[in-house]
Every structure is written in structure tokens, then in C-alpha cells.
Amino acid sequence: MRRILEILSSSLNLTWQEFKSHKIRTLLSLSGVAFGIFCIISVLATVNSLEYAVQKDIKALGSNTVYIDKWSYSEEGNDYPWWKFVKRPAPKYEEVALLRKKVPAAANIAFNVSTNSTLEYAENIISGVSYYGITEEFKNIQPVEMQAGRYLQQSDYDQNAAVIIVGYTVAENLFGHHPEKGVGQLVKMKDGKRGLVVGLIKKQGKSIIGGWDYDNSILMPLGFVKQFVREENGGPVIMVQGKETVPMAQLKDELAGAMRSIRKLRPTQEDNFSLNDIDAFSSFASDIFGGINKGGWAIATLSLIVGMFGVANIMFVTVRERTPQIGLKKAIGAKRVTILTEFLLESAFLCIMGGLLGLIVVFLLTLVSAALFGFSIFIAPNILLLAITICIVVGVLAGIIPASIAARMDPVVAIRSK
């Protein structure tokens, strides 16, 4: 063990001496390794961060959930004539009760109507606020955490009460730096309607794919929003969440049969509705990010090959410069494996130094991205471990030939060389 530590210490010291003696040459040679590690870490970290954020946003749309709409959300809908989508009937609230009877696989069924409009309080007016008119089971599919006040109650739905819960950003813009004070206030809505704020949604943060964007929205009973928005003009959607033990395929089959029955479609008629599977979006997103990862690996591999040749060149020069020292070591009893190990460790340390340079650049870019775009990129521990492993492997491959040459040298010839 002591001998191993001595070899490690000697190799590290020689590597540092090499760097101090030939700073420019070493940095230029390590630039390939640094760029390769930069590509690997930056691509993997960015893709992992983006995928985590996108999957989180997709999961927020509702796990094991199908959105029944006249429009298709998938790429398959691109092959379907748009005018046929337009001619389809929009989902109706009355269909919700029928689906509850015909689809035993469903755990929760909700109906949603939405629009965009302004919101006013005192002298503050904000535009582009998303209005969501929802039904009772919406909270089971789309749970939201309250910052202050309360969520909508059953009595609000029964009485079509003029009550709303507001998103955090909306509340900040209307009520200032203390959005909690907005609970209990009356605000002016679309067409002059007034709504009582009964709750404040906890801040959600930015969404990559948009989603519900609760920070910039308000929720209210369906009956209330229908007082100033026609149901068919509000992009109505039926949300169906399956039971935990029910596979998505079974849920979609039951929904397809139920909707065809409800709309009295003949066997020869095509569906006039779309079943949009949220879980399918998750798989689609994973495939996209997988492809991006492959592209990043391709670039990184080329850079690492260039870097490996640069490190190999350093090691060849180093072996030539230290030939007399190698001969002296062998003359006093150093074994081949000791010489080989010292040079391989030195090569690996050089690559690790290059990897650290790439890591520093990536870390600085994560800080810049967080400051400029508000999107945090995190470097997972497994990515760091992978980068270190790659540095060691590249170092060993780059140094194996020069180290072998050094290990096989004849001590007498090596000592006499200049």
C-alpha cells in the first residue's frame, strides 16, 4: 500500500512539474480533452435538467390521464386534415355524467373551460390572465397547493358562486408584494363581472412546456365562468384519470367505446374526438432527449480522440526528456510495471486536469444560464463520476504506448542517451 501511494505521489508531482515547465504546450494539448469533457458534461447536464423539467411539467398535466378533445395533441394529428378537426363537435359537460356510467376504469372525470382576459383591482390592470372554469374532480387530477385562503368548495360548485382562486404572479401584480392580502378582495373580471378572491395558489415557477401555468391564471367554478364565456367557445376538455390498477390501453379502449356510444357513431364512421394520452407525451419527450444525448456524445467522442492524441504527444516528449532518469531508475532496481504505472498515472492526471478545465467552464455557464434565462441546470453526481472515469480511460489509452516504450528501455542505453 505504501509503495502504491509513493507511485501516486511521484506521478502527481511529475505531472505538476510538467505543467509548470511547459504551460502553453500542456494547456494546448489538454484543450481537446477539456472540450470533450465540456461537451459531455454540458450536454448531459442540460438534457437531464431539461428532461427533468419537461417530465415534471408533463406529470403536472395529470398522471394516467386522458384528455378528450376535438383536437389531437400528438404528431399523428398532423396527418389529419385540419378542417375535419374544426368540424368535430366540442366535448360537452353533459357527456361527463354519461362517461361516469360507461367507464368503470375511470377514477376521476373533470370538465374544463378556459379563456384569456384581463383582471382589475383598484388601479392595477393585468392582461393575458388564463381563466379556468372547472368541476369538482379537477382537484383530484390537478392538485394545487394553497399559499393562503382556501380551495373551491362543493357549495361553490352547487351555487355557481362568483369566487375565484388566483395564481401567485397574478396576485403579485394586483396586490403588490404581499399577495396574501388579496384574499377576501373583489376583483373585476371579463365583461365587468366581479369575483371574490378566496384563495391564493402557491408559487409554481416557470414551466418549460407551458402547461396550466397556474402562476398566471385563476380558477373558478364552471357555472360561474359560463356566465360570460360560451361553453363551446372556451376550448372545452374532458379530463379522465384512470384507476391506479388500470392500464392506459384499457382506459383508452373503454373511453373510445363510451364516446362512440354517447355520440351515436355507426361502426363505419370514424371517431369525431381525440383521446390524448399524457403518458405518451412523456415517452415522446424521452425519445427526443435521447436523440440529443447521442448527438452530444458524437461531438464529445471526436473531441476526446483529438485530446487523446494531444496527451499522447506530451507523453512521447516526456519519455524522451526523461530517458536518462528512466535508465537510472531501472539500474537501481525499478521494475517495468513501476515505470509503466508511473507514466500511465501521469497521463491520467493530465486528462483529469483537462477534465477539470471543462468542468469549470460548464459550471460558469450554469450560473450564466440561471441568471439570464431563469432556468437552473444541475450537474448530477453520476455525470461527474462519468466524466472522471472517461478522463482516466482516455489518459490510460493516450499513455499506454509511451509508457510501454519507457518500461521496455534498456537501462544502459537509456542512461547514455542525451
In short:
The protein is an alpha+beta fold. The chain contains 14 helices and 10 strands. A hairpin with a 5-residue loop joins strand 6 (186-188) and strand 7 (194-201).
Care to describe what's here?
It is built from 14 helices and ten strands. Strands 1, 2, 3, 4, 5, 6, 7, 8, 9 and 10 form a ten-stranded mixed beta sheet that branches. α2 runs antiparallel to α13. The model has no long low-confidence stretch (mean pLDDT 81). It has two domains: 190 residues, no CATH class; 184 residues, no CATH class. A hairpin with a 5-residue loop joins β6 and β7. The protein is α+β, with helices and mostly antiparallel strands. 56% of the residues lie in helices and 16% in strands.
Order of SSEs: HHEHHEEHEHEHEEEHEHEHHHHH
Structural class: alpha+beta
- Cα end-to-end separation: 34 Å
Q: State the helicity in percent bands.
A: 55-70%
The biggest beta sheet reads: 10 strands, mixed
Q: Which stretches are poorly predicted, pLDDT < 50 over at least 5 residues? A: none
Broad shape: elongated
Beta content comes to 15-25%
Number of helices: 14
The oligomeric state of the chains shown is: single chain
Averaged pLDDT:
81
Instruction: Indicate the radius of gyration in whole angstroms.
Output: 32 Å
